[in-house]
Amino acid sequence: MPVQVFSFYIFDRHTECIYSKLWIAPPPPRPLSTVPAHTSNHELSPSPTATALHRQSAPPASTTTSAVGSNNGGGGAYRDSRSAAARAKDDAKLIFGTVFSLRNMVRKLGGDDDAFISYRTAQYKLHYYETPSSLRFAMLTEPGALSMRNVLHQIYINLWVEYVVKNPLSPVEHKNGEGVKNEMFEMGLDKFVRGLM
Amino acid sequence: MKDLVACPTLVFPTVDDTNTAYRGVIALLIINKAGGLIYNRTFGEGLNQLNSNDYLVLAGTFHGVHAITARLNPLREHQAAHYHAQQQHQHQASGSLGGGGSSGGGGQGGPLPSRPEPPSGLEVMETENFRLQCFNTQTGTKFLLFTDTMQANVDVAMRKVYDLYADYVMKNPFYQLEMPVRCDMFDRKLNSYIREINNSR
Q1: Where does the record place the region Disordered (chain A) (predicted)?
Q2: Which of A85, B82, B162, B175 to pair with A31, CA 20 to 30 A apart?
Q3: Chain A within 8 Å of B166 (Cβ-Cβ)?
Q4: Against a cut of 0.80, is the pTM above it?
């Protein structure tokens, strides 16, 4: 059964987001009034969706942020004033906070052996998997999706362990995602997730 | 219904611990729109008993998490763009009719002032040991129903609980809004309803 996957995140035991990837196309450009700077400044070509966003890790958002007009007059105008990369970063932090709070809540209520699996809203569903070493995987899919726990587990054992842990060049700690964004892992992940869709 | 099939001892002859047994509806929490816990009742085994302070913290935490989950929608920009396009379309349509004030403003009497669907926060959470169903009313009161992972028709139960709340809490002239619920009738009706659910399997 095909399932629409929106995004995928990995957090290390220091609560840092060390990998994230989106599978949703960038939103269509706003009609009229919002044309300046919104789409043109990014080097986003439409096909390699949002992977470009994650590559720019160190210098956050040298692109827009400045003269994006507020001539929009309402709605999502304030959103445009910040670059997509910064917003993606914020999203990752929010997702970690959510997942962390829910996990603690579940442990408190269900006992220490209980584990948080997923939550669903009307718009999306978040799946969660945590390894014993506190590596956390989160995946956002369409709300109707079945449990993706085994998928996350597969990603862990077949991709993470194979291409990141067993990579002699990869560091032990993945500060700023170092060692995670290697070609094999990225390709394997993309192939695997696109196979689900 | 299905009295014959539902006898748990026949279905699971050797169940001994509570984790795998049917536990039905385990607990109900009601959180007011400010994140304060106003009602807390446990109907069965299955969750750790917390002290009242921990429950208050839990309610507050959940309130915050609920707000965050509502704005994490990965498609929000797509939907916003879609909505925007629709608005423009309508604007042009109504402009050709009236041609009046072109200054910004939401729906100025267009044919159908449609709004984007408001983002819903967390609705269902699943863990290995239990399931949490959350119902957020129009006024921001949240009903949290903890059930076992196999419980079906939680929506119906939630609906009924909300009905009971409307009937026996909101219609109680002595109940103060947003304050802890202390209504005997509500307690009794709720207890009997939940017992009915838990015994019907």
Answers
A1: 33-82
A2: A85
A3: no
A4: no
